[in-house]
Amino acid sequence: MEATEKDILRGGQFLVKETKCEDVFTPEDFSEEQTMMKDAVMEFNEREIIANKPRFEAKDYALTEEVMRKAGELGFLGVAVPEAYDGLGMGFVSTVLTCDYISSGTGSFSTAFGAHTGIGTMPITLYGTEEQKQKYVPKLATGEWFGAYCLTEPGAGSDANSGKTTAELSADGKSYKINGQKMWISNAGFCSLMIVFARIENDKNITGFIVEYDKENPNGITLGEEEHKLGIRASSTRQVFFNDTVVPVENMLAGRGEGFKIAMNALNVGRIKLAAACLDSQRRILTTAVTYANERKQFKTPIADFGAIKTKLAEMAASAYAGESATYRAAKNIEDRIALRVASGNSHQEAELKGVEEYAIECSILKVAVSEDVQNCADEGIQIFGGMGFSEETPMEAAWRDARIARIYEGTNEINRMLTVGMLVKKAMKGHVDLLGPAQKVQEELMGIPSFDTPDYSELFSEEKEMIKKLKKAFLMVAGGAVQKYGQNLEDHQQLLIAAADILIEIYMAESAILRTEKNVKRTSEKEQSAQIAMAKLYLYHAVDIVEEKGKESIISFAEGDEQRMMLMGLKRFTKYANYPDIVDLRIEIAEKVKAENKYCF
Amino acid sequence: MEATEKDILRGGQFLVKETKCEDVFTPEDFSEEQTMMKDAVMEFNEREIIANKPRFEAKDYALTEEVMRKAGELGFLGVAVPEAYDGLGMGFVSTVLTCDYISSGTGSFSTAFGAHTGIGTMPITLYGTEEQKQKYVPKLATGEWFGAYCLTEPGAGSDANSGKTTAELSADGKSYKINGQKMWISNAGFCSLMIVFARIENDKNITGFIVEYDKENPNGITLGEEEHKLGIRASSTRQVFFNDTVVPVENMLAGRGEGFKIAMNALNVGRIKLAAACLDSQRRILTTAVTYANERKQFKTPIADFGAIKTKLAEMAASAYAGESATYRAAKNIEDRIALRVASGNSHQEAELKGVEEYAIECSILKVAVSEDVQNCADEGIQIFGGMGFSEETPMEAAWRDARIARIYEGTNEINRMLTVGMLVKKAMKGHVDLLGPAQKVQEELMGIPSFDTPDYSELFSEEKEMIKKLKKAFLMVAGGAVQKYGQNLEDHQQLLIAAADILIEIYMAESAILRTEKNVKRTSEKEQSAQIAMAKLYLYHAVDIVEEKGKESIISFAEGDEQRMMLMGLKRFTKYANYPDIVDLRIEIAEKVKAENKYCF
Ligand SMILES: Cc1cc2nc3c(=O)[nH]c(=O)nc-3n(C[C@H](O)[C@H](O)[C@H](O)COP(=O)(O)OP(=O)(O)OC[C@H]3O[C@@H](n4cnc5c(N)ncnc54)[C@H](O)[C@@H]3O)c2cc1C
Ligand SMILES: Cc1cc2nc3c(=O)[nH]c(=O)nc-3n(C[C@H](O)[C@H](O)[C@H](O)COP(=O)(O)OP(=O)(O)OC[C@H]3O[C@@H](n4cnc5c(N)ncnc54)[C@H](O)[C@@H]3O)c2cc1C
Q1: Domain B146-260 fold
Q2: Predicted confidence band at B565 (pLDDT cuts at 50, 70, 90)?
Q3: CB neighbour burial string for B338-357, b if at least 16 within 10 angstroms, e if fewer
Q4: pLDDT at B429 exceeding the cut of 60
Q5: SS percent in chain B: helix, strand, coil, step 5
């Protein structure tokens, strides 16, 4: 499938352009190669990770390193790395699916894996010189060396560019001396290479360096003790202290002062991968939960037969399904855009960088949505297990603890929420996505007389797709109104930004679930896809509620009097179904399917 | 304040009777004695529990026992116990406030305390014979002995009456022999007395026994190893095995087959106490969070100044405030009803039993609402701390783990949700609460022409109180509709029961917050109470959203066509503000107050 510039949505454009179901990639579109990769990774996960679960929970850091080493031997650490640097050179979708299926055994491994392959390796593949890549990437791709990423400091977390670590050029101009303290560094305990960010003189922006680390010859680097954490217990997390650490000048990444850009772009890729890393956890939690619920009897009834439990199973399934739909949709958009850029003469490096940057909005959306979904899923998993869910003998409590970190690292979910809307507004200003035109149309529609036609919604998803269009109008109305009111100061109105982000997130997720299902119905049948149809409808129904809630709160806050009334009426129109779906029935249908298959089966 | 039968709402009646603000008890009404008790308990908590927090987290079970012993020496274990049995003989409000302020240091202690004073002691004080009380209660009230409660079995959790443990009468008729396996028994590791439920022959219902336990002379009792749990790490939780354990016949509690009733009533009291036990945790989490947020700077700004953080602080405060309001309101209702029954000739024992039973609906509401609020509060607490929230060095992660159990034990929140509505329907059938009349009125109102008057809402809370009335109508419409449609089979429609419960819960909580604030405004001023007013309004606003969401989902599921349309229109009317409050501003006001005081200050 050749992608042309025309076909591919630009990042953020989903909001104003209708996407045809044929144009989204779905997990059902995996190629043979991708399916083989998935099977290999799943097998690895079962054998090396899940089988050793208790050891990870007992803080066996050495095991994490050992399993990472094995992953390297099998090529899993180099999926995204070009063959020229001893990687597998596979596409972005394969990268994402590896991340997905390798991450569900334990958050300890998934963090080590994510930190190494993502923020530990990507700064070099994306920004490194040919020499740097030749020298380091093969070692990282094969697991001979492990990477860590040293950005955060005690005083610099979300405000990553404010770090105090310094890099001072030597008198002979041949090296930098790094001094400072980094904290929360994943993989610190067993890495051989660190991507370190430090400030040169009084630069506005930090600079990135590749720093080798050899325990035998520490070059001024010392490590703190392992941090004791709520979850991901066997993931090595330490402080790292640099005391006159000497780094040759040729180890600077990109140019002086380019570090902040590197840091942010590495995080962009990290975000969609982190979303992926939560997906198989959700599937696995649901499978474990339904298996238990089918077996556990109370009141002479398998608890899976109780409505209270069915609701949980259905909601868990629907959110996992939407998460998959959106993640693979975005992954393929990125892959296509990389291909397009390569075709038009960009280097692979440049193409990958720009490809991911283009979809930074979607990456943030995914990070927030899926990290919260997996948390809820684990929470309900505990509840389904009752008292047993609280025991370390069953897998739910660890899943719940491990999930908690995903809402904090790679940018907290607050920061990511604000980023989505912030980036979108910027894209609109730059003319990369035309929001103004559509927003004005919505404004006009608000003033106009609503149509009282009852449209024909007999075709599958016709009402749902109309609803998605309306939700997009709701977003444009709300965000547009806020921009008009507060202009440049919108940033100071975080509550509004966050509410707008919530709307945006729901639209992307719900639309993705619907498009995936529509595509699959076209190649199979409504009957075969009936549970998927139910999940897409259920997800959308909640999305509509959230849009209404967040929209209302926002409108009330920035508009008054007639304007407020008009916008609230518009919101009502944009969130109104002609035929309300019965979500009680939808949930039962989904739950019955999951119960019958005794697993997440989509 | 003498209470007369007329003054006091019956349990569940809050739904159909308007409560005046003068008729609710609030934490601001604490007597001098109660305030002294509160101070003493807080001091104990600081000194004995919080100061030793790391030891509790390190599973120091012996410490839990030791601190329980000290609590006994100070009388804290006997607050509710009549002086005749060496207790303090204080009222129900004092019992609840002790539970509140002693429980926030760690869930490990609060579980030990709750299990001992509640389900471990109450079955004897509520159902014991004079001899049994004389023999055992003083020991329990002073902490000479500790109690455990053995109801749950591997196969009998929510379905508590299905246990397989047996009690067989000896040939000489002098004793019972108990055989069976209990699990999840709190305090098992250091108790001297167990309330054990077992079945005699093929009885439909189980029977309660007082079983002494002496490690030196175990009488067929063996304990499993300590369970390793997600939270409440230093709370002893073990399996208990009975192997021909001999219990004299005079240790049977109440009559044969009365065990299930005992178990359920002990849990009723347990539930409001469990709610109380979550309150000070919420306060403490908020205080810790705001202190951190005031200190922690990112982007050269204390994070407490960011809208994203203000939202969290405000929502945390509002939910804690509503939780307090509702818990003490119900506690005093119970205390008054006990007093009333004593005044009309009941024994204290009988009076207490009936008093608590009367408010079983409120107890379940509180258990669900407050256990979920403290979970959310801890969750946001972690998020405010960012990466530090994930570290065992800061108190948020333990609070989050410990909170998780409250949604599982004392009846899972699913079971309690269904109970609230189930009990209410039963009360209506029995004529104890007239729901039918009011429900019919709502029905008529739905058919009638809505009034288009714009009422005068200038007085404080006039619109909010009108809104509460409307939400009650919404409940009657939804629950009434469901009862009409499904009649006796309503039980099979758990999704509806749960949605109705959510509505009921929100009404009780929101109303309690409003009434408390109104009462306090009357004795101080609107200015002094402005943050409280904001919290009551904020809480109500969310309650309205929840009622709308849950109501809509229910109506769509059980009604069709014109009936559905009519009810949805009714729901819209019942959830519509004339003047929408700006919750963005409300949150800012609340957050500014909390920030300025640097603590939960209400
Ligand atoms: C287990 C673990 C592993 C980690 N691994 C790595 C790693 O390998 N490499 C690395 O460099 N870092 C790593 N981190 C650090 C992580 O990226 C940071 O914790 C995260 O970016 C948040 O920063 P912080 O902890 O300083 O929180 P803060 O930035 O102090 O944030 C505290 C709170 O304030 C909010 N906040 C902050 N700024 C704003 C704002 N402008 N507006 C609104 N709200 C705001 C946040 O959302 C959060 O709720 C790791 C952290 C953990 C816990
Ligand atoms: C740390 C801890 C301490 C405890 N302490 C004690 C103690 O001191 N004494 C004691 O006797 N017990 C104790 N318990 C047991 C506790 O009360 C039970 O765990 C609880 O009642 C739930 O029972 P279960 O675990 O068997 O779950 P189950 O009853 O198997 O429930 C599993 C799931 O099914 C749902 N479910 C069950 N029945 C229904 C239904 N009819 N309709 C809809 N949903 C349903 C539940 O809500 C839950 O989500 C403790 C438990 C723990 C974890």
Answers
A1: Butyryl-CoA Dehydrogenase, subunit A; domain 2 (2.40.110)
A2: very high
A3: bbbbbeeebeebebbbebbb
A4: yes
A5: 65, 10, 25
List pocket residues of ligand 2, CB cut-off 6 Å: A 296, 298-299, 303, 306, 308-309, 383-384, 386-388, 390; B 115, 149-152, 157-158, 184-186, 229, 237, 405, 408-409, 412, 414-415, 494
Beta bridge partners of B149: B195
Helix or strand or coil: residue A577?
coil
Is the CB of residue A270 less than 8 Å from the CB of residue A111? no
Tally the C-alpha atoms within 13 A of residue A602's C-alpha that lie toward its C-beta.
33
Per-residue model confidence as pLDDT tens digits over A548-595: 999 999 999 999 999 999 999 999 999 999 999 999 999 999 999 999
Mean pLDDT calculated for residue range A314-327: 98
What confidence tens digit (pLDDT) does each residue in B159-168 have?
A: 999 999 999 9
CATH of A433-597, one of 1.20.140.10, 1.10.10.10, 3.30.70.100, 2.40.320.10: 1.20.140.10
Q: Are A530 and A344 in contact (CB under 8 A)?
A: no
pLDDT band, very low/low/confident/very high, at A265 (cuts 50, 70, 90): confident
Kindly tell me if the per-residue pLDDT of A178 is higher than 50.
yes
Q: Which letter does DSSP use for residue B117 in this model?
A: I
Cβ-nearest to B584 among A152, A159, A557: A557
Q: How many CB pairs under 8 A join A and B?
A: 178
Segments of chain B assigned to CATH 1.20.140.10: 434-597
| Residue of chain B whose alpha carbon sits nearest to that of A557 | B582
Q: Which among B228, B383, B498 is the nearest to A412, CB-wise?
A: B383
Q: Average pLDDT, stretch A265-288?
A: 95
Question: What confidence score (pLDDT) does residue A5 get?
Answer: 53
What CATH number has the domain spanning A147-259? 2.40.110.10
How many angstroms separate the CA of residue B471 from the nearest CA in chain A? 17
Nearest C-alpha neighbor of A505 from the set A568, A420, A442: A420
Q: Which residues of chain B does CATH 2.40.110.10 include? A: 146-260
How far is it, in rounded angstroms, from Cα B414 to Cα B424?
Answer: 16
CA of B165 to nearest chain A CA: how many angstroms apart?
A: 16
Level-2 CATH architecture, domain B434-597 = Up-down Bundle (1.20)
Which residue from A196, A229, A412, A497 has its CB within 8 A of the most atoms of ligand 1, so it is best to mutate?
A412
Are B582 and A557 an interchain contact pair (Cβ–Cβ within 8 Å)? yes
Looking at the CA of residue B148, tell me the nearest atom of ligand 2: 8
- Choosing from B48, B153, B315, B410, which is the catalytic residue? B410
Look up B410 and say whether it is catalytic: yes
* Helix, strand, coil content of chain A in percent (nearest 5): 65, 10, 25
Report d(CA B19, CA A600) in Å as an integer: 49
Distance from CA of A317 to the nearest CA of B (A): 17
Residues contacting A394, CB < 8 A, separation 6+? A292, A385, A388
* CATH 1.20.140.10 intervals, chain A: 433-597
